[in-house]
Amino acid sequence: MSQIIPPPFKVEFPEQIALSDRIDGERTNVAASEKAVGALNQKVNSLEGYQSGDIKIHNGTIATIPSGWVLCDGANGTPPMVDRAIVGAGGQYQPKQVFGSDVRGTESRTLSAGQMPSHGHRQSGDDRGGRGSNRVILHTNGARKAYRTHAAGGNQPHNHGNIDVRQKSIALIWIMKL
């Protein structure tokens, strides 16, 4: 418990101590004023090793964002980082460039004959003719004829359904120092 000692009082120090309103860290015989210590503490507490505009990941909720930090949601001069991942800029992408899409899936497409899988249709028959079998008769009197099938498939548009190509992820909050 501290106690105020009324004047006159005398405190002795081994060397002369001066009172200062600034702290520079060089002098050993100076006592800082309460105002100087308060200003230095405020500056140290506000920096936290980060400068204004620095962005970091917050492993909490929006309600627990620390004082002096804001959600990177496109407001307050922050980049729109909600539901986004980061990619290194400088090559294909410019700094602060927003790209990508939430849409995934496939589009319908009509296959051409060249795009259809290679396939053939076999025919079988009986060249002995007139015997009452259930086989297709290809020729009956020794004359050979070429038979062809009609095109298979209807060349209808189709798709292959949605495919999720996202990497395994965890959702965290991007925050920016004011």
UniProtKB/TrEMBL annotation:
<protein>
    <recommendedName>
        <fullName>Phage tail collar domain-containing protein</fullName>
    </recommendedName>
</protein>
<feature type="region of interest" description="Disordered">
    <location>
        <begin position="104"/>
        <end position="135"/>
    </location>
</feature>
